[in-house]
Amino acid sequence: MAEQVPAEATSAARPRLPRAEIVERVDITEELMVLKLKPEGPYTYKAGQYCTLGRRGIERAYSLASAPEEEFLEVFVELVPLPDGVLTPIMFDMNVGETMSIRPRAKGIFTMDQRCHKHVMVATVTGVSPYVGIVRSYLSRGDEGHHFYILQGASYQDEFTYRDELEAIAREHPDVVTYVPTVSRPDDERNVGWDGATGRVNAIVEEWMERWGLGHEDLLVYACGHPGMIEDLKERLEPKGYRVKEERFWKQ
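^ that's the sequence the OP posted. Answer follows.
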């Protein structure tokens, strides 16, 4: 998900859009899943961009967790129930082998800024998607000289879908990736056994930046996910001279 896209009336009102087949579905929780899709034709994009998917004439945008070097497109989807959600309830009823429409071009400017070498990436739940794609692409290209500090917030520990992958990368490439997940409801039963960071992610960013010894120089803060998180983060950091690049997620 990247930005809200108006629903279309009917597919008959426009030329047929390309299709993308669901080749894998992984259910994380009752409200979270990961889909891998195979477009029917070539599909090029930059890490961090989003694709526009549709079903029954309804279209929405989803940030890509996959890297351009991968075979399939990967999206991390959160269910927004009716009446607020429109497309995600339909998607959660879909299975492997079914298809969605896909706009032929990826969009978005929430990509890695090569001019900076220190990247503080802040996310809520599915907002980690573009960061996963950026890191995968960076490592697959064998690039050097950049460090990604990823802070991801969630209510519950089972919502950190890419935790194992990011922690493994951080162990194997400590000079490239640092990953800190934080839960905002540490006393909830779903978080029994959690021994990591706690608190809302926007509230602990400055603490962790201080721990890492990060200043303003050669640094860019990325914020992706819930609009409230982004607004609070900007209010905290921008008056202190930090640059914040944002991507907001809306109800789907």
